[in-house]
Amino acid sequence: MANGHHQLSPTVLPSLTFSVNDQASGFIFSHYVRNGRHTRGHFDFLPALIRTDTSPAVTACISALGLASLANIHMSPELMSAARREYSAALSATGVALRDRECARSDSTLAAVELLSLYEIVTCEGPPLIGRWLNHIEGGVKLIELRGFEQIHHQAGLELFTQIRLQIALGNLYKKQRTPSWLLDLSKEALKHRGDTGDQVLDYFFRILVEVGDLAADINEGAFAHPARVLQKALNLDAELITWAMSIDAKWKYTVVKVKRFEGENSTLHPVYGDHYHIYPNIAVSMAWNHYRFIRIILHGIIGYVSATYFPAAEKGSCGQSERHSAAISQQLAEDICASVPYHLGMTGSSGGSTLGIPFAGGVLRLMWPLFIASDCSGASLKMRTWIAQCLDKIGHVVGVNMAVTMSQILRADMHLNWLEEEETNIVKRSYLVRNEYWTPDT
Predict the structure, then answer these.
(1) Which helix (H) or strand (E) holds 428?
(2) pLDDT tens digits, residue range 378-390?
(3) Are 387 and 432 a contacting pair, CB within 8 Å?
(4) Is the dihedral of CA 345, 382, 333, 305 positive or negative?
(5) Closest listed residue to residue 368, CA positions, set 411, 315, 427, 327
(6) What Pfam families does this protein's entry cite (predicted)?
(7) What are the tens digits of pLDDT across the range 354-364?
(8) 426 pLDDT band (50/70/90 cuts)?
(9) Which of 189, 201, 249, 389 stands the most exposed, by the fewest C-beta atoms within 10 Å?
(10) What residue ranges do the domains of the chain occupy?
(11) Among 332, 410, 398, which residue's Cα sits nearest to residue 369?
(12) Pick the residue with more confidence: 253 or 323?
């Protein structure tokens, strides 16, 4: 933990007369809801929801999440105890709402489930990393199915659906399970209600992510008699993503800024990885590009795995892709994710600034998994993993998200997420017995 952090009493800002819960709620609205400087927050549905439905579950969830975030930032056991009390109240109130079929269909109940899932991310203290988070997401799946098509006919419902839908797809990828067809049908309907918001790109990436998850499920089930078909499907999806990147509108493009490095400078401690960083028009654009990058990294993980497992070395050329080529592509994509970090942390002068010196959490939260996936790809060097671990530490400590700190600890312990080769996803010791002779752990 950074030296500037210290334990506080429950009164975080004693010069103000606001209650601790008010300050916790203020933190959530300042850091997770869009404002004049940010085009997208994580909980943009909250203001409209609070105006129309003062749900006890949502109120308790906001307090629990804000208190837990502040407790992590200030290393305060007292604040964390208060957060756990609010979390308990939130679970109880959400349980009551779920037992009433009408309440269970409401925006506020689904919002409570989403807030509870983020609480698990904020308070995560170690492996299995996302197990408890997945429990809440599985509850969200049932609620979205229960709510049906009506939920996407109004703005708050559409934003909630979009937010949780992505987590469902990521959860299914983690579990190597197929995404249900009814969720795809809802997504097609959602596209009709987007308007000219630019969010259509999220529907595109969701579809691709679902297809990648289905490929992982195929491998897990051993259900394909012809691995070449799986490999070809992965290559086709990768080509589709490349086509997207080459044909996007100018408003979705970013600027590459070169950085001069000095001889003898410690690159692992530098705020910029490599010799450049990116500036994006807004968080929505940076989020789209990092979706593109981490999905392609996952695809090339599948391509490399299938190539190595099911085809002798002599046949790899006929399959059109080698492990070496996939590793090189993954390395470039990982470097591009690293290049997005300064923008997200408010270090470029163009990311919209921060609140009270803390980066906007609505943007930083979306950076954790792309960074972790980048660190785990076949092209990631020890230097990159060390740099990413430091970034995750910074995210965890300054925004108060413990899962980022846990991810950093996993990297520092030379562990990684073994999600493809085994039926159960586990955190395991990284093996340096790599098939590709060109790669060594200290490159």
Answers:
(1) strand 426-429
(2) 889 999 999 999 9
(3) no
(4) negative
(5) 411
(6) Fungal_trans_2
(7) 444 567 776 78
(8) confident
(9) 249
(10) 254-436
(11) 410
(12) 253
